[in-house]
Design brief:
Layout (H helix, E strand, L loop, with lengths): L2 E8 L1 H4 L6 H12 L2 E9 L3 H14 L2 E5 L10 H9 L3 E3 L1 H13 L6 H4 L3 E3 L2 E4 L8 E6 L2 E6 L3 H20 L3 E10 L3 H7 L1 H5 L6 E7 L2 E10 L4 H19 L3 E4 L4 H12 L3 E5 L5 H7 L8 E5 L4 H8 L3 H7 L4 H15 L3 E7 L14 E7 L4 E7 L4 H22 L1
Parallel strand pairs: 1-2, 1-3, 3-8, 13-14, 13-15
Antiparallel strand pairs: 4-5, 6-7, 7-8, 9-11, 9-12, 10-11, 15-16, 16-17
Helix pairs in contact: 2-7, 3-4, 11-16
């Protein structure tokens, strides 16, 4: 039976919708990888009574209680005072943490105030979790067979603590085995169609392997999970890989990668392997496709750049789409994206040009071209083609789906080559 954990996210800004709680999502994933089951997640405000009652309920539910937020130096940061009250303890100044704070401020040319020094005060019944990226240390407390870990709400600080200290110590203390995951990443096929395609394979999976469908906007991940013990680590990996090899021939036309590889990373890998380059002309996505492409480290090796020809005037003057074509067919049309794709490829002298034109919404649709109508063009040195899509009535979802569809169109054509 996996060890259970509870996650507590503290902060009024999360409750008010001013800050997205990415911490709990990330922590859940890391605990899952380590073989620890998240029993429940709490989101609470900066209120003493609520923090204390949540700590009590969390302790009754799980052996591991992970807390983020409220460790700053100001009066509205209540996590540390609540921990003192909950455990009936007091603060002790940690010299190692204090030296780190002084060094951090000194190297930045800033004065160390008493408020800053107070961040080195740790509950007497706990130990400091080093925060090499910031000033507020985490706190690790063990009481009544339970582990409480309090960490800053700043995501990159919390993630460093979890990765370097918290997860390794929790695994050493609680996890004899480990859940081993492999992910098959697919695109261009709905979850229901994918499930129907692999039904026979899924039915015949070994009992030791569990399959999960993880749909996201525009793609579906297949996660295979098996419990791993140190002595049969290799055998567990081999068992999962054998099942992946069995299903790949059935779904290979939709598979773009494995494990943590995103579609834009896969496109970069394929372009590098093919020694090809890419340029873009995107209208309704307003640069979102370029953003996804350039989020990949090293994308300058294969991505030359792009235009955002939002107006018809720009389409005509910069990418030479004839005015009569725009007037006759409209900007959201096959003839226009064909010209855009070919001309952006020539403008940047790249192997591939991709173009996008659509009606993202929520207004601008017609009976003939409703909101969500998108044309995507693809051009290389041998062909120029286009495809029509009909997405949703939501603007932001349409922008995301369109970028994913454009990346998939590149993938499909690179695979054909």
């Amino acid at each position: 039976m996996p060890t259970k954990a509870v996650i507590i996210s503290i902060g009024d800004e999360i409750l008010y919708g001013q800050t997205l709680d990415t911490n709990a999502h990330w922590i859940s994933g890391e605990l899952n990888k380590a073989g620890i089951q998240v029993e429940k997640r709490y989101t609470i405000g900066d209120r003493r009574e609520e923090i204390l009652s949540t700590l009590k309920e969390a302790e009754e539910r799980a052996k591991i209680i992970l807390i983020t937020g409220g460790l700053g130096p100001t009066s509205d940061d209540l996590t540390k005072p609540c921990l003192l009250e909950y455990f009936d303890t007091y603060l002790v100044r940690n010299e190692s943490v204090l030296n780190h704070i002084i060094e951090l401020f000194t190297t930045r040319g800033r004065e160390v105030t008493e408020v800053n020094k107070a961040q080195a005060d740790i509950p007497a019944n706990g130990k400091a979790v080093p925060n090499i990226l910031g000033t507020a240390p985490g706190v690790w407390i063990e009481e009544n067979g339970k582990v409480f870990v309090s960490m800053p709400g700043v995501p990159y600080e919390m993630q460093q603590m979890m990765t370097d200290t918290v997860i390794p110590q929790l695994r050493e203390k609680y996890v004899k085995g480990e859940l081993l995951h492999r992910m098959i990443r697919t695109i261009g096929i709905p979850e229901s169609a994918l499930a129907n395609m692999i039904r026979e394979w899924e039915t015949n999976l070994p009992k030791a392997i569990k399959l999960a469908y993880l749909p996201t906007k525009g793609s579906v991940k297949l996660r295979l999970t098996a419990k791993r013990e140190d002595e049969d680590h290799f055998q567990t990996q081999k068992l999962i890989q054998e099942e992946i090899n069995k299903v790949l021939p059935t779904i290979e036309k939709y598979v773009y990668g494995f494990d943590d590889e995103e579609i834009e990373e896969a496109i970069g890998r394929m372009l590098l392997e093919s020694k090809m380059s890419l340029s873009t002309a995107e209208s309704c996505t307003g640069g979102y496709l370029s953003h996804k492409i350039t989020s990949v480290p090293g994308s300058s090796q294969w991505y030359e750049g792009g235009f955002i020809p939002y107006s018809n005037k720009f389409k005509n003057e910069q990418l030479r789409v004839p005015l009569e074509m725009l007037e006759e067919h409209g900007a959201v049309s096959k003839p226009v994206v064909l010209v855009l794709a070919e001309n952006v490829r020539k403008a940047f002298n790249t192997s591939i040009g991709v173009s996008i034109s659509g009606i993202a919404g929520p207004t601008g649709g017609t009976e003939e071209k409703p909101v969500g109508t998108v044309w995507i063009g693809y051009s290389d040195q041998r062909k120029t083609v286009a495809k029509k899509f009909l997405f949703t009535k939501d603007r932001l979802i349409n922008i995301h789906y369109t970028a994913m569809a454009a990346l998939d169109m590149i993938r499909i054509n690179l695979t054909k080559d």
